[in-house]
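QA checklist item 7 of 12: single-chain prediction sanity check.
[x] sequence parsed
[x] length recorded as 171
[x] structure emitted
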Amino acid sequence: RSKPRTDERRDADAAAPRRTSFVANAAALVGPAVVRVDVERGEGRPEYSHASGFVYDGHNALVLTNAHVVQGATRVAVVTAEGDRKDARVLGVDAHTDLAVLKVADARRLPEAELGDDDALRVGDWVVAIGHPIGLDHTVTLGIVSSKGRSIASPVMSRRDDESGARRWAD
């Protein structure tokens, strides 16, 4: 027989068992809990930015994101994986670890991501990052754990006063 027609090949491809990767499985499992964080800063002519976060407590509609994302925000909202936009408020910020907790307003129970066990994580393990960098929705990328136990503070938080009282960058 001659080559199958395009629609026959498409039907055969659809019927064939799909090979999936752990990355695709992780994205399907965790993706529903990942949110885009929309931030507005300023009055009159506000500035807007977008970042990522994830729901870690679906019952209470709590989202974890980065502290620098919400710093100076006059308004915060989250957009769920389903595309629902909800106002949120900042419950707490830890500048040292660069973490912030948001409370989503008027939210029914949200899908949540289960936190992993960092004690079980090893250098060299694969990791998957799912988010909304610079507003690019539903982005998935892959990497490896390069180190554990490092403190990675931003330069603003790494300054210290030396004996003379001068501000210096920490070593």
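[x] summary fact logged: Confidence is low (pLDDT under 50) at residues 157-162, 167-171.
[ ] second reviewer sign-off
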